[in-house]
Specification:
- The chain has helices at 40-43, 73-87, 99-110, 132-144, 146-157, 164-175, 179-191, 195-198, 218-227, 243-246, 248-258; strands at 2-8, 11-18, 24-29, 51-56, 92-97, 116-122, 205-210, 231-236.
- It is an alpha/beta fold and 259 residues long.
- It has one domain (2-258): Rossmann fold, CATH 3.40.50.1820.
- The longest helix is centred in the first third of the chain and has 15 residues, at 73-87.
Length: 259
């Protein structure tokens, strides 16, 4: 079931909500520059196991409205807070991938974990995101040849072999975003960090990270594990930046067991 939630005047986010009558709820925050559809292989499985599975497209991405501004971690976390309030969610697991992991961390920090019972960080872009060099490269490509940028993202994203058809699907997900929001998130990943947020996380936290991740090095997952109290790190030995695709059966099993 899909619907829209207003997060501020003139801005609505798209929400996909499967199995809303289930007792346990999981909220998924996608990575840059994708949308909730990246979790297809979770939505195929987890609702059937008795989990309410909610995917949120951030502003600027997927089916959500695409304003020109509002792409700081604070504003993106505020958007999630509005969705949580509108859906009256409580005692839910918050799962964030890559930049979605950074947004999840800021949400828990900024709102004292409101409604969140457990946090799951998947190849999270934290405590830091992009270096100046990486950001400059991506910005140049976004503003001049966004499909080429997406192809470069695809090339570095996964450790395991993918078909051309899968690559094409991935490309389509990325191009559903607006170019200005794609660029704005690059700036956010370059300019913001989350070191000050980590000691505010009080909920049990699962950190999943591919050891072959070229986008966010595995060392950052180890750092998160050291700095977040009550956290556990599960390395994925055959994954790059997309454990939920590359080792989806293991990912779904580990996620369900933790929640």
């Amino acid at each position: 079931m899909g619907y829209y939630v207003a997060v501020e005047s003139g801005v609505k986010l798209y929400v996909e909500d499967l199995n809303p009558s289930a007792e346990k709820t999981i909220v998924f925050l996608h990575g840059w520059p994708l949308n909730y559809k990246q979790f297809e292989y979770q939505f195929n499985v987890l609702p059937a196991l008795g989990y309410r599975s909610i995917g949120i497209d951030w502003r600027g991405f997927g089916k959500s409205d695409k304003p020109y501004d509002g792409y700081s971690f604070n504003r993106l976390a505020d958007d999630i807070r509005q969705v949580v309030s509108a859906l009256q969610l409580k005692d839910f697991a918050l799962v964030g991938h890559s930049t979605g992991g950074a947004i999840a961390i800021r949400y828990v920090s900024r709102y004292n974990g409101f409604g969140v019972s457990k946090l799951v960080l998947v190849d999270a872009a934290a405590p830091i995101g992009f270096t100046d060099e990486t950001a400059s490269k991506f910005l140049s490509e976004v503003l001049n040849d966004r499909p080429k940028m997406m192809q470069n993202v695809i090339d570095d994203f996964l450790f395991q072999y993918i078909t051309k058809e899968f690559s094409d699907w991935f490309m389509d997900l990325g191009l559903e975003a607006a170019s200005w929001s794609t660029a704005a998130i690059i700036n956010t990943l370059r300019d913001e960090n989350l070191y000050g947020d980590l000691n505010k996380i009080q909920v049990p936290t699962l950190i999943i990270h591919g050891i072959h991740d070229k986008v966010i090095p595995f060392a950052q997952a180890q750092e998160l594990n050291q700095l977040i109290r009550n956290s556990q790190l599960v390395p994925f030995q055959y994954s790059g930046h997309g454990a939920f695709w590359e080792e989806k059966d293991k990912f779904n099993e580990v996620l369900a067991r933790f929640i």
